[in-house]
């Protein structure tokens, strides 16, 4: 993990892999934690590896109080512009940062494809279809709100599912779609899950202990780096085929693994990484 500290403002980028094109969000708050940025970057690395791409994760944080935000963001954009133009990093909006904040950066169309909410929501539903085999009449409970949750709900309805928005973790359902901060689904909440499958809408919402709890209960967990991969594929591998179809096929190919799906997908991604990296990155994408 490479820590790139900016000089013009209190900000940083963590690059998961050295000398490799990277993609990831920019977050802004009075204090953005490096640990969270590393988790987000690692998830992107495993997403790319799952589809045979030589791409890594790169997540940024801008530390600024509200009164200093405008100047901090402007300084950040000026300093990272060359990284974007050179193809080293493809940034997108995260917590505290909107698309308009990044409008001055280059590679506009590629960045739009990489962080487009509709593609992301459709990709998560495609992953759910891959895990369940059919969505017709299935109950999908969506934890979280916002454009991504709305896009997932619309896609679920279009595929014949019954979508419950603003759901709770213990909502009875066939698939629980989870959006939120890293680690939002921790082990105590995992013990209340009443679903056959958990499918992340956002990166790394499941903790390592929650994964173990869910597995013991017979609940299948789709890796976030598969369910959220459609925008990455649209941006980084546009000639590889329809992104949502690829996400569906990747999950469907592992569905027979049952509660071992998360580990089977992880080993598959690490096999690809081992083929072109001198060593695997330390630590898997779990909160």
Walkthrough of the structure:
- With 287 residues, this protein is of the alpha/beta class.
- The chain has 2 domains: 113 residues, Rossmann fold, CATH 3.40.50.10860; 147 residues, Rossmann fold (3-Layer(aba) Sandwich).
- Helices cover 41% and strands 17% of the residues.
- It contains 11 helices and 10 strands.
- The strands form 2 sheets. The protein has a 5-stranded mixed β-sheet with strand order 1-2-4-3-5. It has a 5-stranded parallel β-sheet with strand order 7-6-8-9-10, with helices on both faces.
- Strand 6, helix 5 and strand 7 form a beta-alpha-beta unit.
- The protein is globular, with a radius of gyration of 18 Å.
- The protein starts with a strand and ends in an 11-residue tail after the last helix.
- The mean pLDDT is 95.
């Amino acid at each position: 993990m490479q820590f790139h500290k900016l000089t013009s403002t209190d900000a940083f980028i963590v690059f998961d892999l050295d000398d490799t094109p990277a993609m990831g969000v920019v977050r802004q708050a009075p204090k953005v934690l490096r640990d969270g940025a590393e988790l987000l970057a690692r998830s992107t690395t495993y997403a790319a590896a799952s589809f045979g791409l030589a791409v890594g994760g790169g997540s940024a944080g801008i530390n600024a109080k509200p009164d200093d935000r405008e100047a901090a963001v402007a300084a950040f954009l000026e300093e990272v512009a060359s990284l974007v133009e050179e193809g080293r990093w493809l940034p997108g909006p995260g917590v505290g940062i909107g698309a308009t904040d990044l409008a001055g950066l280059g590679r506009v169309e590629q960045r739009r494809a990489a962080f487009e909410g509709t593609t992301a929501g459709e990709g998560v539903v495609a992953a759910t279809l891959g895990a369940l085999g059919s969505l017709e009449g299935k109950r999908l409970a969506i934890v979280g709100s916002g454009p991504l949750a709305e896009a997932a709900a619309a896609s679920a309805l279009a595929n014949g599912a019954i979508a419950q928005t603003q759901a709770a973790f213990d909502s009875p359902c066939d698939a629980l779609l989870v959006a939120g901060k890293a680690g939002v689904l921790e082990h105590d909440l995992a013990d209340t899950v009443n679903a056959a499958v958990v499918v992340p809408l956002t990166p790394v919402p499941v903790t390592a202990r929650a994964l173990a709890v869910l597995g013991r209960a017979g609940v299948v967990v789709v890796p976030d780096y598969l369910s959220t991969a459609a925008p990455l594929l649209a941006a980084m591998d546009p000639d590889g085929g329809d992104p949502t179809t690829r996400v569906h096929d990747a999950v469907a190919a592992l569905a027979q693994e049952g509660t071992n799906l998360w580990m089977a997908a992880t080993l598959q991604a690490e096999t690809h990484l081992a083929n072109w990296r001198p060593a695997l990155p330390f630590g898997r994408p779990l909160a």
